[in-house]
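User: For my dataset I need records formatted as: sequence, then structure tokens, nothing else. Please produce one.
Assistant:
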Amino acid sequence: MRSYRRSSPGGGKGGVGTATVAAVAAIVIFGGGGGVVGGGALGSSAGGAAQSTLARNLGAKKADAKSAARRGDTRSAWQRMGLRQLRERAERYGECVTHSTGQVQRFLASTPCRRLDRLLVVLGDGSGNVAVVAVAWVEFRGRAAAGRYLGISDDFGTGYVRPIGGVELTGQHYDSRVAGAVAVTAEAEPATGLFDDRVLDAIAEVAAWIPRR
């Protein structure tokens, strides 16, 4: 498994900009913003305090969350990190090319996948800070092809499997792993409010262990 933050032009921590597009897309996808955005004000002191709390003992929280995710208890996984799952949407396809971009798409055209599963999750910290998490499971005919796929996908700027609903991803908070013949990728993005980079990285790492739906 690879666990790191991919280099991305612009860098930065949390906030708005591209991430705002993710928030808007999530609200559109799941219908209405009342249950998604929460009650905290953007950049409020309460939101910052909540992030400080989430980042505390993050290593232990992440280990517990991964254990829960492996068992398929995803809601408990997020709760162990101090987060609440607000909404989720899963989709399954029999091909991958039309749902991908760049070098990743060219690889999938020459090495067709057998199945594609995508998941989009909206998470909140209870203080108005919201993140979106996109997970993709790309199944091939064997482990070697899955490894070659991640050899391309793991590099920044090489393309990706499009998230559900066209949510914007920067690649800054990313994790991946090979599970048999399946290549798993997970990315987290701040949607509204503030999110600590360390927390977003941990969210992606935990999400990579969620069993496909």
